[in-house]
Amino acid sequence: MRIHDKSKGYHTGAKDYVAGRPGYPPEAVAWLREVLGLAPGRKALEVGAGTGKFIPTLQQTGCEITALEPIAVMREQLVGAHPGIVALAGAADTIPLPDSSMDAVVCAQAFHWFATAAAVTEMRRVLVPGGVLGLIWNGRDEDVPWVAALSEITNRREGDTPRYRTGAWRNAFPAPGLEFIGERHVRNRHVGTAEKVVLQRTLSVSFVAGLPEDERAQVEREVRELISQTPELAGGKEVAFPYETSMYAYRKV
Question: 146 near 232, Cβ under 8 Å?
Fold first, then answer.
């Protein structure tokens, strides 16, 4: 499976990725337990695990975790932060695991990168009968004016980059052998300084991280100007970046 050109920003922006990204709310752990059935003694595969941002959430279920990540620099960060996790090199449509070997497959902030029939078929293959594929994203709450203004800055640079917000990932469903079993949506916040949760978050976006240096510097200037002109963000005080966490689940039949 070819890595999308715009994902190459993750090679250079991996260090900013963890600091700039929000975590996941307690409801995500409840979803993993109640819908995906994760618990001690159960096995979960995270596809597109990146630097391991979602792993602490998975660990709260007590399950056995395997991570799959094609980008070496991100996989190295994952292993460094979570040395007890089995981290595999590979793509969503060529998973190096046996048939029916996982109780759940999870994609956190990643499925839009590989939302193809081949990838869905492969993820279904490694699930046990009755196993669940779970997709989860943190999406910006653009009802907040400054969040909408920030998105306008980034969206002008996205080109054809796959993104959750477009909804194109839904074209992979319905999929043979998988039944949709529901979705959940909850509020989430990323709390910190504007430098961290607004600026670093923007610079960690794949297609921004992959821009030529002068264009990336222009994005930084625009975001700093937005911060300085927005009373909620200016002055170096702690801010709360609002998100909606969306969770979708499909059972192998």
Answer: yes
- Find all residues with CB under 8 Å of 169, minimum gap 6, and list them: 111, 112, 115, 135, 162
134: helix, coil or strand? strand
Q: How far is CA 88 from CA 71, 75, 117, in A?
A: 10, 8, 22
Q: What are 23-76's pLDDT values in tens digits?
A: 999 999 999 999 999 999 999 999 999 999 999 999 999 999 999 999 999 999
Amino acid at site 231: P
Tell me the whole-structure pTM to 2 decimals.
0.90
Of 95, 69, 105, 79, which is closest to residue 177 (Cα–Cα)? 105
Structure token digits, residue 1: 């499976």
pLDDT one-digit tens code per residue, 131-143: 999 999 999 999 9
Backbone angles phi, psi at 27, to 5 degrees: -60, -25
Residues in contact with 198: Cβ distance below 8 Å, sequence separation at least 6, in sequence order: 150, 223, 226, 227, 233, 239, 241
> At 20, phi and psi to the nearest 5?
-85, -10
What mean pLDDT is predicted for residues 1-19?
Answer: 47
CA distance 124 to 128: 8
Q: How far is CA 4 from CA 29, 70, 112, 155, 160, in A?
A: 30, 12, 11, 17, 10
User: Which of helix, strand or coil describes residue 170?
Assistant: helix
**pLDDT (0 to 100) of residue 7:** 44
Alpha-carbon distance of 120 to 114, in angstroms, equals 9
Q: How far apart are CA 64 and CA 103, in angstroms?
A: 10
Q: Which two tokens stand for residue 164?
A: 């959750």
